[in-house]
Amino acid sequence: MRRAIALAARGLGSTSPNPAVGCVILDASGATAGEGSHLRAGGPHAEVHALREAGERARGGTALVTLEPCAHTGRTGPCARALVDAGVSRVVYAVADPNAEAAGGAATLAAAGIDVEGGLLAEEAEEGNIAWLTSVRRGRPFVRWKYAATLDGRSAAADGTSRWITSPGSRADVHRLRAEADAVVVGSGTARTDDPHLGARDAALLDSEITQPLRVVVDSSASAVKPGARVLDGSAPTLIAVAEDADASRIEGLAPVVRLPRAPGGTGLSIPALLRGLYERDVRSVLLEGGPTLAGAFVAARAVDQVVGYLAPALLGAGPHVLADAGIGTIAEALRLRVTGADRIGPDLRLTAVPVLP
Ligand code: AOF
Ligand code: ZN
After folding, report:
1. Which of 58, 204, 261, 278 has minimal Cβ neighbours within 10 Å of its Cβ?
2. What does the pLDDT look like over 212-246, one tens digit per residue?
3. Are strands 22-26 and 32-37 parallel, antiparallel or unpaired?
4. Pocket of ligand 1 (CB under 6 A)
C-alpha cells in the first residue's frame, strides 16, 4: 500500500478534477505483477493500468488501491468489474470513495466473492489525496493557505521590503505546491506591490512536465491588475475576480474576468462565492498565497483547510503580519489548529497544520 500511495503521488496536479490514485497488483505468490497511477482525468484509472501490466498474473492475486475501486461507468468502465474479470481474489483499499456517483465498488467486489478490506494505511493515503477528498466532501475546492514569515510572524519589513525572507529551498517547495494546485490565488495588495508571476517552476522537471495552475487575482475594485503585469504574460491562464458593482472596463481585455458578489457587510468579495465560481471551473484545490487581508477573509469564512507556514529564523519586530483581521475578537473564537507536520527546509522550518473541527 505504501508503494501504491507513492504511485498515486505521480498524478498530483494533473488529474484534477479527478483524484490521484495508485494501485499495485500482487500475483498469487505475493510478488509485484503490475503497478499503475491515474495520470489525467478521462484517462485510465490506476487499477486499469496495473491490471494491464499484470495480465494473467493477476489471477488469484491481490490488488492494493489507495481509493475504493469505482463501481460506475463514467469516462471509463467500472474498476470493480475489471478486478472481478481479471480474477483477483483479494482487494485491499485505503480510503472509501466519498464520490456518491462512483462509490459502491467494495460491495460489488464482495458480492462477486472477493475478499475485500478497507482502511489500510488510510491516514497516509488521506494525506496524499487530501485536496480531492476534501473538495468532494465539502463541494468546494480544498484551500491550502501558504505563507512565509519571520519567526515573529512578519511577512515584510516596515519599509515593505520582503525579498527574500525564506531560503531558496523553501521557495522551491512553494513551487511544488503551486504545481500541485489547480489554482493559485492572491489579493489586490499582493498583485499591486509584488507584481507576482504565480507560475510553477521545478528545477528537476521540464516546463512542459509541469501543469501550470490557474492564476487568480482577487481584485474587487478592478484596479490592481495593470497592463504589463506579470500574471498577464500568457504562460498560464489567469482569471481576475472583481465585484459585481466594480467598473471592470480597465481590465476587460487583459484577462478573463469573473464578477462576484461582495461579502455581506464587507468591502471584499464573498469567499464562498469565489470558491463556488472556481469549483464550477473544475478547480479542486486552491493555493492561497496572500496577502494578509485576503487570508483574513478566508479564515473569517472558515474556508482554510490546511496551513503551510514557512518560518525563517529572523526577527523584524515591525512590518505587516501574515494574517490580518479574521473577525476573531476573543481567545475563545481562535481558529484552533492541529500540527500535522514540522520539517526543516535548509535553515527554515515548515509547519503544516489543519483546523480542528468543532
Ligand atoms: C480516477 N482515477 O484511478 C480511480 C477513480 O471521471 P471518471 O469516469 O474517470 O471517474 C472518476 C471517479 O472514479 C472519481 O471521482 C473516483 O470517485 C473514482 N475512482 N477515479 O479518476 C482512478 N480509481
Ligand atoms: Zn475506476
Report:
1. 204
2. 999 999 999 999 999 999 999 999 999 999 999 99
3. antiparallel
4. 18-19, 21, 38, 45-47, 67, 70, 74-76, 79, 97, 99, 102
